[in-house]
Specification:
This protein is α/β, with parallel strands linked by helices. Helix content is 46%, strand content 14%. It binds nicotinamide-adenine-dinucleotide and magnesium ion.
């Protein structure tokens, strides 16, 4: 049997590293064709040493020489090297049996579109590109026949629960996304929170940006928007329920009131392996669920008074223009400022709300429109927070 090739974008991140573990378990069936990372050369070269890919790409243009030198130094002189955002986007489009898109943030917009336009099988973790790409992205996917398999655990769960449903059933169904509630669940006073506290997630070990998003509940807001586009459900048929154990990854309620849930030990290796193997299933290297040992699963309503970004995300989704692009870009800058200790945790809320109120959000007609609005929001939010361009 011939091996399938996988392109991994965001190979040095939390999802990227989990994917490398899954690939390692299935080395007879899968090999890595291309590895792409953001700006850190050493972990990228380390991943290349393990996987012996055809190509390694780094987004930071200034790191090309360093990447080439380190690849040569470890005996990977035969591996092609490239640098720059365009090279990452090209990597998304190039021939491969599947492309895992696990870049963080709106930097993933262009690579996602390029993979979809090339008709690739896209294993999609980068939720920000769905939040920004919206109907345009889904339309392109229908046109090219690109298959989008969600890797975000909730969406992977929904995909599994919807597998047997036809369009008529989906039209009357409700999506129920579960949320862990993050590290500050139950708190009313969010003053004085430090970045270290915010990134300490109770159930998942993830990148810093998504960890802060989980702490503010913006992650769930982005996921409501992501679910709306991926599955074609309006916001008023998408609910969120807090489930601190993170065992039920999400649910679908059908017209008759029956609810299907997908459960498992919380590990991103599950959705990654599912998306790689679909429609088959393969070993994911995840501890089996032992419900008797867990004992009890609990659920509660989200506290949208204390964590207002979830409500704002629903409002942005209901907008007619590019509101979700504004929401996402403002959040990315605010999270960056919070992680750099420039603003308070709660200033993330006011920054995003302020951007949605003050920045015009025309409906994008192209990827260029999406990127232009994203840039404009970043510029304005940086200015409002007194940050330098690119600081
Ligand atoms: P991370 O910060 O750990 O990794 C991000 C990766 O993207 C790194 O490899 C980094 O080098 C790369 N990158 C950053 N900027 C880039 C650029 N401009 N061009 C190319 N590559 C760039 O993040 P993560 O936690 O792995 O999350 C990645 C994506 O997956 C996010 O969109 C996140 O919301 C989503 N996601 C993550 C998890 C999780 O458990 N970590 C779960 C669900 C969804
Ligand atoms: Mg998720």
């Amino acid at each position: 049997m011939t091996q399938k090739t996988l392109t991994i974008l965001g190979a040095t991140g939390s999802i990227g590293r989990s994917a490398l573990e899954v690939v390692r378990m299935h080395a007879d069936d899968w090999r890595v064709g291309t590895l792409a990372g953001g700006s850190r050369v050493a972990p990228l070269v380390e991943a290349a040493l393990e996987t012996n890919p055809d190509r390694v790409v780094i987004a930071d243009e200034g790191k090309y020489q360093e990447l080439r030198r380190q690849l040569d130094a470890v005996g990977l002189g035969h591996v092609e090297a490239a640098a720059g955002a365009d090279a990452v986007a090209d990597a998304a489009a190039e021939e491969a049996d599947a492309v895992l898109q696990s870049i963080v943030g709106a930097a993933g917009v262009e690579p996602t579109f390029r993979a979809v336009e090339a008709g690739r099988r896209l294993l999609l973790a980068n939720k920000e590109s769905v939040v920004c790409g919206g109907g345009l992205l889904m339309g392109r996917a229908r046109a090219t026949g690109a298959l989008i398999l969600p890797v975000d655990s909730e969406h992977n769960a929904l995909f599994q629960c919807l597998a047997g449903a036809d369009e008529a059933q989906k039209a009357k169904a409700r999506l129920i996304l579960t949320a862990s509630g993050g590290p500050f669940r139950g708190r009313k006073d969010l003053t004085g929170i430090t970045p270290e506290e915010a990134v300490r997630h109770p159930n998942w070990s993830m990148g810093r940006k998504i960890s802060v998003d989980s702490a503010t509940l913006m992650n769930k807001g982005l996921e409501v928007i992501e679910a709306s586009w991926l599955f074609g459900f309006p916001g008023d048929r998408i609910d969120v329920v807090v489930h601190p154990e993170s065992i039920v990854h999400s649910m679908v309620e059908f017209a008759d009131g029956c609810v299907l849930a997908q459960m498992g030990t919380p590990s991103m290796k599950n959705p990654i392996a599912y998306a790689m193997a679909w429609p088959e299933r393969i070993e994911a290297g995840v501890e089996r669920l032992n419900l008797a040992k867990i004992g009890r699963l609990t659920f509660e309503a989200p506290d949208t008074e204390t964590f207002p970004l979830l409500k704002l995300a629903y409002e942005a989704l209901a907008g007619e223009g590019g509101e979700t692009i504004v929401l996402n870009a403002a959040n990315e800058i605010a999270v960056e400022a919070f992680l750099a200790k420039r603003i308070a945790f709660t200033t993330i809320f006011s920054t995003v709300a302020g951007a949605l109120e003050s920045i015009p959000a025309p409906k994008p007609a192209s990827v260029d429109d999406i990127l232009a609005l994203d840039r404009e929001v970043r510029r304005r939010v940086r200015a409002a927070l007194g940050m330098k361009e690119g600081a």
